[in-house]
Structure formats: C-alpha cells, structure tokens
Amino acid sequence: MEIQDKIIKTFEEAAKPLRTGELAEMAGIDKKDVEKAIKKMKEAGSIYSPKRCYYDIKK
C-alpha cells in the first residue's frame, strides 16, 4: 500500500484533524515520509489544514 493511501485510511479511521506526528504514529510510517506525502497531497488538493499544524482529508 502506498504511503498516501495509508494516510487517507488513517484520516478516515480517526475522523478528526491530525498533526503529522500523530498521523505517523497511527499509520506506522516514519514522520519524514508523512511530511513529504502531506506536502504533495496538499498541493494536489486532497487534504487541507483546518488550523495550523493540523491536517484532514477533504470530504
């Protein structure tokens, strides 16, 4: 499974905005890899930041 798929699945399970550290821990992925994927996903428009340092998927 690709990192971005794991991130989306983790957001769906959490059902709330998450910080990168929380997301990395819940998904079992290295924080640096999560940060890189978040940046790409934010540029693509699949996630957004409801408040500083938190991210969530667009529903």
Topology diagram in text:
Elements: H1 3-14, H2 20-27, H3 31-44, E1 47-48, E2 56-57
Antiparallel strand pairs: 1-2
Helix pairs in contact: 1-2, 2-3
Give descriptors for this structure:
59 residues, mainly alpha, Arc Repressor Mutant, subunit A, two-stranded antiparallel sheet, 3 helices
Word description of this protein:
By secondary structure, the protein is mainly alpha-helical. It has one domain: Orthogonal Bundle (Arc Repressor Mutant, subunit A). 58% of the residues lie in helices and 7% in strands. Strands 1-2 form a two-stranded antiparallel sheet. It is globular, with a radius of gyration of 10 Å. The mean pLDDT is 94.
Mean pLDDT: 94
Shape type: globular
Radius of gyration, in angstroms, nearest whole number:
10 Å
**Major beta sheet summary:** 2 strands, antiparallel
Question: Can you name the CATH architecture?
Answer: Orthogonal Bundle
